[in-house]
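Dock adenosine-5'-triphosphate; give full complex structure.
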Amino acid sequence: MQTILEIRNLSKTYGNLKAVDGISFKIPAGICFGLLGPNGAGKTTTIEMIEGITKPSSGEIFYKGKLIDNQFSQEAGIQFQSTALMDFVTVREILKLFTSFYEKTLPIEQLARQCNLDSFLDQYATKLSGGQRQRLLLALALINDPQILFLDEPTTGLDPQARRHFWQLIESIKQQGKTIVLTTHYMDEAEALCDHLVIVDQGNIIEQGSPQQLLGRHFDTICIQLDDTEISRLPSGIAVSVQQINDQIQIETDRLEQTLSKLIEAGVNLSSLRIRNRTLEDLFLKLTGSQLRETLQEAL
Ligand code: ATP
């Protein structure tokens, strides 16, 4: 697959802080690329350097094999984390205004259809619901029919139904052959949508690969969950590790049948039993959990 975007040794320093510390990656055309990391990891700074909003301290960015230039501005679409919408302006008027920023644009009706905004074209943009507003911001990002689309935490604050709906929109955009660069804090979202993930922490890349590659690389166990009332009945030596989380015990095992048999033999009540595969959320906590602990300790 052809590389559409490449960053080499990209850094951004604010005083003594290395917000982004010499990171490099390539994005193949047509994939959904996920940039993940805890708060303050350097995701937005990285994306903003690519988008030309923040000037890199050092490093290079290549679009279609050439140092980034005006072609990128014309062919990229950006949905920002927060965008202020003007009062007393309709959805149609905002879309029309944005068409004036680009050489090539899509018809407003087509965008409205694609982003399910047909019924809201004549409504004031500030009166839209959270999900409708995000769909408008997506339509604005698509206005120039971009080849590469940046989505910065696009589903934050949406209810589960609106999030799923937004995922379907992202899938449909991907099916048009566009490249998507997604930053998100929702690991289920990254798992559902992304073909390749880069996980950053403290300005450095700490892991990368497809969701399945990453899970396969880091986990060879599955999780059994039970109510913590059963903790006293657990037989010894049943699992790789046992953790207590809220009112549940989580048993990690690489021998499911054997572990279940031992639980039954020991008289453990299995009515609360849940068995689950490892998720990206488990991986994220495994890779970045130390930082969370530090933050917690600082807070105590
Ligand atoms: P979040 O998930 O919370 O959006 P992030 O991964 O996008 O976090 P960044 O916003 O890129 O993180 O911030 C990386 C680091 O750089 C943070 O420590 C942040 O405080 C710092 N930083 C970002 N912008 C500036 C700035 N303009 N001046 C000084 N420090 C900044």
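Observed: DSSP finds ten helices and 14 strands in the chain.
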